[in-house]
Predict the 3D structure of the following.
Amino acid sequence: MAYKITDECIACGSCELECPVEAISEGEDQYVIDPEKCTDCGACADICPVEAIVPGEDSK
């Protein structure tokens, strides 16, 4: 279950720097998380200043 970034994202970049597996990248309007790379560690959610990162739904 990968984390996802909601529309509350302010594109500050904190999450990208915090991700240990480089699953986060800058998208067109906000940052995005690659679910294939995300290890569900939650480091990005812990650092997000606006709480825009939440656990995603399990796709299995």
